[in-house]
Amino acid sequence: MNCIRFAFLPALLIGSFLNAEVKPALMPLPRKMTVADGALRIDPKFRVGFATRPEARLDRAARRMIARLSAQTGVPLASVPVTDTRLATLVIECPETVDRPDTLGESEAYQLDVTSSRARLRAPTVVGALRGLQTFLQLVVPGDGSFVAPAVHIEDEPRFAWRGLLIDVTSHFMPVPVIERNLDAMEAVKMNVFHWHFTDDQGWRVESKRYPKLHQLGSNGAYYTQDDIRHLLAYAHDRGIRIIPEFDMPGHSATWLIGYPELGSAPGPYSIIRTFGVYDPVLDPTKESVYQFIDGLLDEMTPLFPDAYFHIGGDEVNGVHWKANSSIQSFIRSHQLKDEGGLQAYFNQRVEALVKKHGKTMMGWDEVLHPNLPKDIVVESWRDRESMAKAARDGHPVLLSWGYYLDHLKPAGKHYEVDPLEGPAKDLTAAEAARILGGEACMWTEYASPETIDSRIWPRTAAIAERLWSSANASDVASMYQRLDRISDSLTWRGVTHQSNYAAMLQRLAPTAPLDALRTLGDAVQPLGIDGREGHHAYNQETPLNRLVDAARAESVRVRRLEEGVARYLASPNLSDEAAIRRELETWRDNHSRLESSLTASYLLKEAAPLSADLSRLGTMGLEALDALRARKTLGPDRAKGRLDALTLMEKPRAEVTLAAVRPVRMLVQGAAGGH
Amino acid sequence: MNCIRFAFLPALLIGSFLNAEVKPALMPLPRKMTVADGALRIDPKFRVGFATRPEARLDRAARRMIARLSAQTGVPLASVPVTDTRLATLVIECPETVDRPDTLGESEAYQLDVTSSRARLRAPTVVGALRGLQTFLQLVVPGDGSFVAPAVHIEDEPRFAWRGLLIDVTSHFMPVPVIERNLDAMEAVKMNVFHWHFTDDQGWRVESKRYPKLHQLGSNGAYYTQDDIRHLLAYAHDRGIRIIPEFDMPGHSATWLIGYPELGSAPGPYSIIRTFGVYDPVLDPTKESVYQFIDGLLDEMTPLFPDAYFHIGGDEVNGVHWKANSSIQSFIRSHQLKDEGGLQAYFNQRVEALVKKHGKTMMGWDEVLHPNLPKDIVVESWRDRESMAKAARDGHPVLLSWGYYLDHLKPAGKHYEVDPLEGPAKDLTAAEAARILGGEACMWTEYASPETIDSRIWPRTAAIAERLWSSANASDVASMYQRLDRISDSLTWRGVTHQSNYAAMLQRLAPTAPLDALRTLGDAVQPLGIDGREGHHAYNQETPLNRLVDAARAESVRVRRLEEGVARYLASPNLSDEAAIRRELETWRDNHSRLESSLTASYLLKEAAPLSADLSRLGTMGLEALDALRARKTLGPDRAKGRLDALTLMEKPRAEVTLAAVRPVRMLVQGAAGGH
C-alpha cells in the first residue's frame, strides 16, 4: 500500500495503479487518497445498494450514476439500486433521510473505499454522497479484461465552500437544455453554485406575473417561465447545486424601464439595447415608487428561489442620467450624499433592507462595497483581488471572480494559477481570510450563443473547479492538463457540446471542404476574447456567431500537445517526438493547398485565407528548424532573426483569431537559432 | 433559365447555380426543378408568413423550421411567423385548416418558388407543406456574403406513398430521445412511416394497463408508458409521420408468456430470452382464451394508435412447440389444416377478424401470405422480392423491406440500387404493380445500442428515402454519395449522433491514445453486419457494445473518398490526387507506431492490434504501387501477385470488422501490376 497526499504529490495520480492499464483522472483532486492493489470489475452484475433507506434525491442520483456508468462503459447495468446490501457491489451509507435545500458551508465530505470485491461510499450528508458518486464515476477506466475501478481509500472534502459558475443569459438567451447540460457538467467537477444573471440592458429573462411588461417587452419572447425556473431549480438541487438569481440594479436596467419608464432617471422611452457595454439607463434612487416596485418584485421572486442569498448586481453605474437630472442632484445635496457614488450606496442600503425583509441575504458586485452596509452582505470581486481583500478586511464574506472570467478565453493554466488566498489575501489575518468563501467562474455571453457557449465554458472551468475544491498545493499544471483532457471527454459523454459540435461548425464554414483540413486550420487558431473582439467588428445581439472565430475552441489541445512535444525534444532529442513534430508540421505545410479552393468559395471562410497560407509557411519554417536541429546545425543569427520577426507578424490577430500554431514553431526556431 | 428534370439529369444538381458558391444538396431529389439566376438572402430580417391562418401543426412546423434555419446558419431569426404576408420573406400557402391524422396515399405534393426577393411554398395539404419546408431548409447554403437560397422553381411529390423506417426496440430498448431524434431525421429526408417493433422474445416494450404482467415481467423496467407513446405519436404527427405499431404473434412471443403462460403451446415457465435468433415459444392457436386475450389487447392498444394499419408480425414460427403438443396436433387434424403452416393461417384469419373488429387493417410479414386472407391485408416482404411480387399478384397491397435491412451494414449504394419495381416486379401488370405501396428500411437492434443505433441508420437510410421518393431515374450513385455526405452533416445539426459520438467512442477504447490516430484506425475499418457478428462471439442482450466494431461507422467516408481519388488518378494521373493519396497512405504507414503502446494497454483495443499493424503495411504497399505508377514503371507480375495475395488475407474479418482500407490499395496495386 502506498499512501499519497495529492496535495503534495499530484503527479503520482497518473502513474502508480498496479492493475489498471489506463490510470483514472480525478478532477478535482481529492484531499487524500491511498492506492491499494487490485481493482473492482464493472460488469453486468454490478449493483448499487443503500445501507439504509435513501433520501429521495440520493436515490435519483444513484440511478443517474448507474445510467452514466452504463453509457460510459457500454456495460448494461440494472438501473434500480438494491435494498439488500449483500447483493450490492457499491454500498452507499448516508444518514440523512429528509430532503432539504443545500446551504452554504454544509459538509460536502465523503469517504470512498474500493476493494477488488466491493466499494463503499460514506458521507454525513446527501450532498457529500453526491460528490462521492462523481468520484466513483471518474475512477472507472478500461482495465485488464473489463472496465474497473482501482482499489483506493479516499477521504475528501472541499477547500472552499462556494464554487460557482455564472452564466449570463441576457446578452444571448440560453434555452433550458443549455442550462441543464451545464448543470450536468458542474456536477461532474463538484461545483456547487449556479449564478444566474437574469436581467441586463440586453434582456429580461424571467417571467414576472406581477410586472409582466418586464419579460414581455424586455425579452423578444426569449425568457424562462416560472415553471422553467422551478424545473431547473429541482434539476440543480438533484445535483447538489445551489442557484443564486441576479437581478442587476440600479444600472444595467434598460429592460426594466421599457415597460416601466417611470422608474428611470431620464424620461425615456427605453428599448432593449442590442449592443454591448456600459449604458446610461439607471433606476432613480430618489423615488419611493422605485423601492415599492423592487419590494413587489422581491415579493414575487424571493419565494421562487429557495437559496438564502439574492444577488442585486450593483455594478457599472456610469452616473450620466443622474448627473443630468436636476431633481436627483438636489436629492444628493439635501441628503448630504457625497456624489453619485454616495447615491448608489444610499440605494444599496435601501435595497438591502428590502432583501432582508424578504428573508434573504444580499450579494453584490464589488462596487457595492461601502462602510454603511451590513457586514453579512456578500461581496463578489470582479475588478481585482484588492477589492476582495478589502471587503474581507471590512468584515464581509467575499467571493473572487477576477481571474475566472471565461469570456477572456485565457488558457486553463492561467485560471488554475489564480488562488483566492494568494496575492493581496496573503496580508489578511486568519479571521479575515476565513471570510473568503470561494469563487465563481463567469461566462458573459456577448460572444457566445447556445451553440458555442459550452466550448467557452468547458473544459477550462474544470481547472477552476479544481482550484476551488482541491488543496492549494495541487498546482502541477502539466498534471492538470493531462487530467483535463480526460475530463473533457467524459463531459462529452454527458452531452456537453464543447467537442461534439466542433466538426459540424467547421464543416458549415465550407460544406464541401475536406473536414480534416478544416480541422487542421481550426486547431491551429484560437479565438480572441471579449477585449479583442469588441474592437474588431460592430457586434450586436443579432450578429451571427458562425465564423471561424466561433468554431475555434478556446484553447487548442493540438497546439498545446505539440508545444509539449517540442519542449521534450529540445530538452532531449528523441526519434518519437521528432516524428510526431515532423508529421504535424508536414500536415500544416500541405494544408493550404487542400483548402485553397474552399477558402475563396465560402464567404464565411474567406477571411481565414491569410491564416491558412501562414499556417503552411509555419509548417515549412518549423521543418527547416527541425532539420537543422536534427543535423545538429544552427540556422544562424540572421536567418533566425528573420524567422522570428516573421513569426511575430503572423501572431497578430486576424479574423478575430490568433495563430496559436506560431508558438511551437517559435520554440523550434529559437532552439535552432544557435549563437547563445 | 435552364430547366432540369432531375429524373434524367441528377448530376446537374451539383453544378449549375450561378450565384451560390456552394451548391445545395437536395435529398431526396425533387421530381422537377428549374434553376434561375439570383438567390434569396437569409439574414436577421428573414421572416416566415402565412397567406391564411395556418393549421396548428403547420404553424409549429414553421417555427421549428425557423429554429433549424437559425441553428444551421447562426443567423438569429424572429421565431414567430408573421400574419402580414407583405412582411414575409417565405410565404406559405396551404388551404387545410383543421388538424387530422395523416393517411396512406394523401397528397404530399408541394410547389416551391424562390426568387432573389421572396420565396413561396404552396401545398394542397399540410403534410405537403411540411415536405416543402424541408426542401427549403436544404436549399440554404453559404453564398456570396451571406447564407442564401438559390432561385428555383420546384414541383415535387413522392413516387411511393409508404416510405418507412422500422426500429426494433426489443433486442435493445431505445429510450424516448432516441426515437425523437430518429423522427427528426426521417422528417429531414421526407420519410413518412415509423414502424415500431414493440414486442419480441427479448422484450415487451409497451405499458399495458389491462395485462400489466406483459410489460412488468417482459421488459426489466425498460418500456414506454402510454404517456410516452402519446408523446411520440404527437411528435411524429408534427413531422408528417404515421406510426405503425407491431405486436408480433404467434411466434416471437416469449415475453407474452412469462406472465400469461396459459397462452403458450408448451407448459412453460417462460422468461425473457437474452440471446438472439428464432426460438420455440409460440401462442396456442387452438385455445379460444388466446383470441380473447388478443381481443382484449387490441381493445386497449388500437385506440392508442390513430393509424388505420396494425402490424401483427407473423414471422418466423418454427413450429417446434406445436409439433410437440398432441392436443394441437389433433386440432390440426380435426380442422383439416394441412400442417403447422395451415395452423398459422388459421390463426391469422382469426386475428384478422379481431383487428378488423377494432377498426384497423391488418399488416404482417410475408409469411402471413395465404389464399384465405382478405385482400386488404398489407404484406411486408422481408425474405425476397419474389414474395412481394406474389403478394401483389394475389391482390394484396405490399411493401418491400428486403434489400433495406440496415443491420446488414451494406453500403448506401447497395440499398440505393434496390428499386421495388425492378426485378420480379417487372413481370407484374400495371394494376398489380400499383399495389406496391413502397418500402421500409429495417433497423433490427441485436447489435445496436442507444449509443450506436444512429450510426447504423444514418446517413445510409437517406439513400433509401431517396429511392422511395424520387424518380426511378435518379440513379447516379456518385451524385447520391456527394449529396449524402452533406445530408449527413445536416442530420448532425439536428442532433442525430451518427457522427458526433464517434470520437468519444474511439477515445473510450483507449483514453490516453492520440485521437487522430484512433480515428485513422477507426476510419480504415468497417463493422460486420449481423451475419458476420452472430457467429463470432456469444452475444446476448447484456453484452457491452463498446468495442472497435461498435465505434466504427457502417461505411467509411474516408475510404470511399480515397477510392474515388484512386479511380480518378488511375484514369488520368494528376498531381492533386496523387498528393492526397500519398498523404493518406503515409498517415496509414505511420499510424501503428503511434498507437502501439495504447493497443497493448487497453483491453478494449487489444484485439485491433493486428488490424493496426496491417493498416501500416497497407500504407507501405500502397506507396510502393503509387511510386511505381508515378515513375511509369510496373511492379511486375510476381510482386503484384504477392501483394494481391497479401491483400486478400488482410481483408478477412478480425475483431468483427473488415479492413476497408484494403480496397483502394488493391486498386493501386492492380493499376501498377503491369502485364495486362
Structural Rg of chain A: 27 Å
Major β-sheet annotation of chain A: 8 strands, mixed
- CATH topology of the largest domain in chain A, anyone? TIM Barrel
**Strands of chain A, total number:** 19
Mean pLDDT across residues of chain A: 93
Structural class of chain A: alpha/beta
CATH architecture of the largest domain in chain A: Alpha-Beta Barrel
What does the overall shape of chain A look like? Answer: globular
Concise overview:
Chain A has 25 helices and 19 strands.
Description:
The structure is a homodimer of 676-residue chains. Chain A is of the alpha/beta class and 676 residues long. The first copy, chain A, has 3 domains: 32-156, Chitobiase, domain 2 (2-Layer Sandwich), CATH 3.30.379; 162-480, Glycosidases (TIM Barrel), CATH 3.20.20.80; 500-672, no CATH class. Chain A is built from 25 helices and 19 strands. In chain A, the strands form 3 sheets. In chain A, strands 1, 2, 3, 4, 5, 6, 7 and 8 form an 8-stranded mixed beta sheet that branches. Chain A has an 8-stranded parallel barrel with strand order 9-10-12-13-14-15-16-17, surrounded by 4 helices. Chain A has a two-stranded antiparallel sheet with strand order 18-19. In chain A, α1 (56-73) links the parallel β3 (48-50) and β4.
